[in-house]
């Protein structure tokens, strides 16, 4: 099916999120929508999927004008979405999620879960997914939840499929697999809109590229364009894709982790007798394929995993079994890998989110009240400094684009006096221009003498930031190597070979 969007305009109050956008996506092509954070990509896709109603413009499918009163109508017309934030019900099984909203019943009026299970198995087999139809979504790692979203869209026989940053949460291997799947889908005639901030992916699969900036289409680019060309078209200036940094001059050991073991809620060992240290003024990257204990390790450092054994000491003070408040008060900054779940309160304003980890005695906190004027001024400075695209610091964080939400988390954590920074997937969902800024800030944090741990599944990010790299595999650190280790060396360690 061919899709055409003509002159789509969508406003939120005074903000014009989409300003007369034209986009055409042909049957069988992968069309990349590129643009900086807040450019209006997700909004446009929400208009297409019937979630928002545009004030102006029209949608045509195979030349026929269509209007959608809601997502159900868009879905029935063959438009499938794989969202940036999962729309799954966590307490339901995979099969139950697949039939949700599309319930087919057996003769007795009961849900035909058997058919749904089979559908999950069939689609999984076709695309090489390993998804158990009876697993509870809540128990699945993020990457598997994503695959359920894809299966759900495919189960509705979507003819136009929108992938809104699908790879932000995938491992490099899963990403490669997804690229193959997208190609297969396109070859079978699906029209695909692909939103991503990763230029490598764009260059790998795009047939055509449309670039949006500040709600407007600014041009088309060729898939043969270089990363530098694509980056500057996106953000309207030249971008340093790899931040230059001086070699580290590490000081004394600051964080010492010894024999740390962390259990998952099911009782399995998630981090297995891990020992390492981080010195002042160095960046230790924790690399590995997602799900090898990195998340649990970062959470244990924050006091989020009570019952862990071994020892964690920061500047000589034990942090093991401390509560989160004490860990934050000890000067630990934390960027969680899942910003919506652990990093922000969607219903709070930007300003309120920027002071979430402060405690009594802080300039923002008066006697039992917030000092709103001081907080707003601080928030305004941070919004400017971190280039958070918003109309006001009183905007609810939930209304920001994904990348701008991530910048709020970073602004908060990088604005305190830190004795240790633990940043998990710090640049998830943010555009290339902002990655440059965030990497510079992380390097500056290091250069100010703070020990930094960066947990990242992105090898480009690890290579850009790390002074040393610890690789995790099945809960263990299988090797600690220099920051300039080759991809091949890291790849072997990530697959379980020991150094
Ligand atoms: N429901 C809403 N209410 C108010 N403003 C909104 C709403 N949804 C989006 N916006 C605003 O519209 C603009 C475009 O946001 P959108 O999510 O479309 O950006 P995006 O290009 O997808 O960005 P990112 O790359 O960060 O995901 C942003 O300024 C955002 O704050």
Number of helices: 17
Considering DSSP H and I runs of 4 or more, what fraction of the residues is helical? 25-40%
Main structural class: alpha/beta
Spans of at least 5 consecutive residues whose pLDDT stays below 50 are none
CATH superfamily of the largest domain: P-loop containing nucleotide triphosphate hydrolases
Strand order in space, largest sheet: 6-7-8-3-9-10
* CATH architecture annotation of the largest domain: 3-Layer(aba) Sandwich
Main beta sheet strand tally, sense and closure: 6 strands, mixed
Gap between N and C termini, in Å? 51 Å
Under CATH, the topology of the largest domain is which? Rossmann fold
Protein name: ABC transporter
Membrane topology: Peripheral membrane protein
GO molecular function, one term: ATP binding
GO cellular component, one term: plasma membrane
List strands and helices in order, with pairings.
Elements: E1 3-12, E2 15-25, E3 30-35, H1 41-48, E4 56-61, E5 64-66, H2 71-76, E6 79-82, H3 94-99, H4 113-127, H5 142-155, E7 160-164, H6 172-187, E8 191-195, H7 199-205, E9 208-213, E10 216-221, H8 227-235, E11 253-263, E12 269-279, E13 283-287, H9 294-301, E14 309-314, E15 317-318, H10 324-329, E16 332-335, H11 339-343, H12 350-353, H13 372-385, H14 402-413, E17 420-424, H15 432-447, E18 452-455, H16 459-465, E19 468-473, E20 476-482, H17 487-494
Helix pairs in contact: 4-5
Bound molecules: adenosine-5'-triphosphate (ATP).
Describe this structure in words.
It is a peripheral membrane protein. Pfam families: ABC_tran. GO terms for molecular function: ATP binding; ATP hydrolysis activity. This is ABC transporter. Residues 3-239, 255-499 form the ABC transporter domain. Helices cover 32% and strands 25% of the residues. With 499 residues, the chain is an alpha/beta fold. It has 2 domains: 3-235, 3-Layer(aba) Sandwich (Rossmann fold); 253-494, Rossmann fold. A 6-stranded mixed sheet has the order 6-7-8-3-9-10, sandwiched between helices. A 6-stranded mixed sheet has the order 16-17-18-13-19-20, sandwiched between helices. Strands 2-1-4-5 form a 4-stranded antiparallel sheet, covered by helices on one side. Strand 14 and strand 15 form a beta hairpin. Helix 4 (113-127) packs across helix 5 (142-155). Bound molecules: adenosine-5'-triphosphate. Residues 12, 15, 17, 35, 37-43, 389-390, 399-404 line the site of adenosine-5'-triphosphate.
